[in-house]
Amino acid sequence: MTFRARVGVSRISKNLNPAQAGYTRSVRNAMLEVERNLSLFLIDLKKVTPEILIDSLTPTFKKSLVYVPKKTLALMHSGYLEVRERGTVIQAELGYGRGGIPHYAVYVHEATWIPHQAPTRSKYLQAAIEEDIDAIAKRVVKGYQKKTGMK
Amino acid sequence: MSDYSVGIKDILYAADIGNYAGSAPVSPATVFEIHISRLPAEPNTAIAILETGGKEPNPKWLVDYPSIQIIVRGAPNGYAAGKQKATDVKDALLGFTSADVNGDRWTCINMLGDINNLGYDSNNCPMWSLNFSLVICPAASSLTNRQPL
């Protein structure tokens, strides 16, 4: 993640007196300090983001583990929650059946006409996310507030 | 709120995606039959509209966020036509313009994921599922405690 803060463009004409040029320099230096602090803050934000995402999604993942059918436990054990960093993008992924193993993960999820013993069900992931979506957003906000000390 | 499965059926029927039991086909070439709440054993070429819950409705304002699942089943070994039908369903619903549907205000239709290939059933019919999230401002009923927007 890179960040540059710019505020306008300073132009100093040849006829300005030294006092004005000094003033401009001091403003520039102050802005450089703001830019440095902001960059450090953003670097800190990037560092804490994976942990916040994991913390925010863990309750949802646990809910999906309650819903997932457990006939052989293979589907349950295929569940995962992980955070990846790709360039400037930090991405959290919650899922089942990665790489097509077990091959029936999508079918069991989508086959709403097949009955399951409660609390297991089809739509085991979608239901957990839909039920939790507002809470996830709140947990993310609280996570950043806690990690950064901002209220 | 009127039955949103019926609203979906009406949109698909108007777009000539499929026939509905008892209705005259929009086009003779339409061979897919639309069913609500179940996927019957016959005919093979069928579209089922199934309710799958959804996000919690707003307790103060009349705004609901139901989800629906649409299953498209093609003819035996009819992958290409079936996949095209699933794509047609996606095109007809996704990005639906805000409009009044059966007395309710439908704000938008979003898709949850993309088209899922479910493989083949025991009759070698290919199947796909599509999931949609709806935002609906239902008409006020006499029982509601919520307020219209």
Q: Could you tell me the mean pLDDT of chain A?
A: 86
* Radius of gyration of chain B, whole Å: 16 Å
The total count of helices of chain B amounts to 2
Low-confidence sequence ranges of chain A: 1-8
Blueprint (SSEs and pairs):
The complex is a heterodimer of chains A (151) and B (149).
Chain A: H1 18-67, H2 74-77, E1 80-86, E2 89-95, H3 105-110, H4 124-148
Chain B: H1 4-14, E1 19-20, E2 33-36, E3 46-55, E4 65-73, H2 79-93, E5 99-101, E6 104-111, E7 116-120, E8 126-137
Parallel strand pairs in B: 1-2, 2-3
Antiparallel strand pairs in B: 3-4, 4-8, 5-6, 6-8, 7-8
Write a brief structural summary.
Chain A is mainly alpha-helical. In chain A, 56% of the residues lie in helices and 9% in strands.
Overview of the molecule:
The complex is a heterodimer of chains A (151) and B (149). Chain A has 151 residues and is mostly helical. Helix content of chain A is 56%, strand content 9%. Chain A is built from 4 helices and 2 strands, in the order ααββαα. Chain A has helices spanning 18-67, 74-77, 105-110, 124-148; strands at residues 80-86, 89-95. Chain A has a two-stranded antiparallel sheet with strand order 1-2. In chain A, a hairpin with a 2-residue loop joins strand 1 and strand 2 (89-95). Chain A is elongated and about 85 Å long. The two termini of chain A are 24 Å apart. Chain B has a single domain (4-137), classed as STM4215-like. Chain B has helices at 4-14, 79-93; strands spanning 19-20, 33-36, 46-55, 65-73, 99-101, 104-111, 116-120, 126-137. In chain B, strands 1, 2, 3, 4, 5, 6, 7 and 8 form an 8-stranded mixed sheet that branches. The longest helix of chain B has 15 residues, at 79-93. The mean pLDDT of chain B is 92. Chains A and B meet through helix 3 and helix 4 of A and strand 3, strand 4 and strand 7 of B.
